[in-house]
């Protein structure tokens, strides 16, 4: 068999956890192998070993049949292995060409920029990437930045490409494009390992799928013969429900009332324009929109992370527009942020410190300026248990070392445990496995049923349609329309997201 990669009995331990417990996987030439596993299953660790970022504690790696030791990413590169990480590693004020050649300059020689530029143009054409080599990274979309990362691998002649949850940051349109790009790469003789939680994507592009649970390989299946439900079940070890069950909603009083809000964005123009929205107790309002249409600025304005130019942000009858972030939290706002590293966690703090981040001065967690360590520990353990947050050292784990999905579950748990009146849930299930998504969805519905106001922002249309009672659509910073969730469908919302108002749809 023509294997380009064979990883045999790979073992990697971290304090308190065996991340890879004798894992064996192999990649055939010209195939897409999906790696599926719940949050913290050990997928990123395994790929970090293949890419030379971690040294395994045991096992062997063969590339094209030859046993190798991969000490660092440079060596991985020399063996033809490239990786697109979850968080891109690009310099924002450099051009695309400069970013691609960065770190690949020939030793002692001056780099020929125009030659590099030509090579980038021809690669971009060959793989249909549509990249402008002279544009600066700061001016291009997230989807385009990912293409630059792909080009970086191709420029270095990589033939084994690792994609770590590549679609988590993409819009639905960009996802369709990426799937096409992956097929092109395979047609040109590349081989791909794809880490993803999205079963539909696996079904769409992958040939085989290796399922990992708690550091061990459970099975490898031929994707064309496997159903989504079977793959999900192998992954979490139980049946998973794909549909969200929720009863009738009983909206109560108005909790959040935003009126005529204007907010300037980072490009110094109005990103939110004369925007009004309300959320009542006992309902989930879904805010739908193509990424970058003002939803980030709106949420930042409500939480106080970003200043508002004018308008009213009323919570329980009090205008919060001039209040600090902390005052807004104390007034009853919880926020599951879009960017968990920037606004969600202090990565060098322990999990327990992060679980009381916003409430550390409350009488429960401190007395006369001294921390109530027992209470903090008890609280952290409760969140960990309730939200099944998995990590090596429990409450003492440094959050930087946790898997992305487990970081996310910890934030969602912390915010729900704050018992807010208004829960702002922004991309609450980004990077989560299907089992965790099912759980978080149930908890959000529980919040609504217990009389909380929930504002859900998501790029996943399915999630908006499944969870929301009302759906509000934002386009170019403006309110395009509002519909009852039970009277609408993907098509109608899709058109509104593209800027077509309800009455203009025929
Ligand atoms: N540098 C590290 N130090 C300590 N523990 C680590 C480190 N890297 C990973 N771990 C632990 O190893 C386990 C596997 O993590 P890994 O990131 O490989 O999971 P994953 O399958 O990629 O999860 P996700 O889908 O959530 O990204 C987790 O429990 C994580 O906390």
TrEMBL record:
Subcellular location(s) of the protein: Cell membrane
Gene Ontology molecular-function annotations: ATP binding; ATP hydrolysis activity
Cross-referenced CDD domains: ABC_Carb_Monos_I, ABC_Carb_Monos_II
Keywords: ATP-binding, Cell membrane, Membrane, Nucleotide-binding, Repeat, Sugar transport, Translocase, Transport
Membrane topology term: Peripheral membrane protein
GO cellular component, one term: plasma membrane
A Pfam family it matches: ABC_tran
Segments forming domain ABC transporter: 5-239, 256-501
InterPro entries in the record: AAA+_ATPase, ABC_carbohydrate_import_ATPase, ABC_transporter-like_ATP-bd, ABC_transporter-like_CS, P-loop_NTPase
Domain of life: Bacteria
Family: Belongs to the ABC transporter superfamily.
Protein name (Swiss-Prot/TrEMBL): ABC transporter ATP-binding protein
Organism: Thiospirochaeta perfilievii
